[in-house]
Amino acid sequence: MGRLVGLAVAVAGAWAAAIAVASPAAAAPAGDGGRTPLRVATYNVSLNRAQPGQLVSDLRSDDEQAANIAQVLQTTRPDVVLLNEFDHDDEGQAVDLFRSDYLEVSQHGEEPIEYPYAYSAPVNTGVDSGLDLNNDGQTGTADDALGFGEFPGQYGMVVLSRHPIATEQVRTFQDFRWQDMPGALLPDDPATAAAGDWYSEEELGALPLSSKSHWDVPVRVGSTTVHVLAAHPTPPSFDGAEDRNGRRNHDEIRFWADYVGSPRQSSYIYDDDGERGGLRPGSRFVIAGDYNADPVDGDSVDEAITQLLDHPRVRDPEPVSSGAVEAAELQGGANAQHDGAAALDTADFDDQAPGNLRVDYVLPSKNLPVRDSGVYWPAADEPGSELTGEQPFPTSDHRSVWVDVLVPGLR
């Protein structure tokens, strides 16, 4: 679920451009039949802090958690990786520090890794709405922010890449309003007879769909563009009978299903620059992120994540690990009641409800052949298990998920 603490107050007009360093990307490995292997990963790194600027300060002070996370990335070596729960700062200091002081420095003998290209931008978490969104009679709380949080930028996102990012073509959907999605699952106040009336007209006019943001980040792999579709929908919990978070989670996931669907399905969509429509048919893409929804277990609205897993344009590689199976067996509790395969779990929520779940996804388009996939969750007797471990986790309660695809085109 990943949302354990919160955020508030917005910086008006806050903006941070993509950080595109001019140094060349690392050479791609030899292709397969003229195609370039590309490893895409997602990792909820839990590098969220309680105060603005604290992550920057921690990264300047040999932060052990950040070093462990860097070691995981040096071990798995993704070419493109989305980091969820990485606090955003407008100057990009945290991103720069994490790259230069952690990823580009060997961690316990692992080979350093360089990401010359990065994209980061503002998110809705911690941006004060000025409204009483949770209907508790108060305003200005973390629950009243446009996305749950104590300060703007908490629980942010970063895309790191060894291949060039087409920054001028990035599309962001931070401001797309929830009410503008046709058939939106708007929450209902159970105390009234009216439908879909949890939020007032004023609140619906201000409330975005995305609890953080949705980004379409084009990455140039040789002569081919792969669109990294990044997001981190709200956990479907921490609410009441109105299920405002569960419904929002469902529709945040639906957004990408419509975006990669037919032009008719995506015609309602507009980005933060006012451009309308979704992804052009035939485009190659990878949907990545912590989607806070398990296809079988947990608290999400039924079939929330299957909107993507069963999408006709999307391939589900079903990455697995041995560590997830071991953890579910050892912890028992809620895990023993799960219907889903433990091998597919990507987050260690221990034996308490909802138990360990599959919530982190890397889902390529069907026109990107899959060569391999995995979840970095070693069993206790396997190398690297010290980087996952048990609570308090040395890295995060989520595990890194990666998929290897083959990208056609000239290198």
Automatic annotation (TrEMBL):
Endonuclease/exonuclease/phosphatase domain residues: 41-398
Swiss-Prot/TrEMBL keywords: Endonuclease, Hydrolase, Nuclease, Signal
Gene3D superfamilies in the cross-refs: Endonuclease/exonuclease/phosphatase
This protein's record includes keyword Nucleotidyltransferase: no
InterPro entries (alphabetical): Endo/exonu/phosph_ase_sf, Endo/exonuclease/phosphatase
MF term (GO), any: endonuclease activity
Position of the signal peptide: 1-27
Protein's UniProt name: Endonuclease/exonuclease/phosphatase family protein
Organism: Georgenia alba
Taxonomic path: Bacteria, Bacillati, Actinomycetota, Actinomycetes, Micrococcales
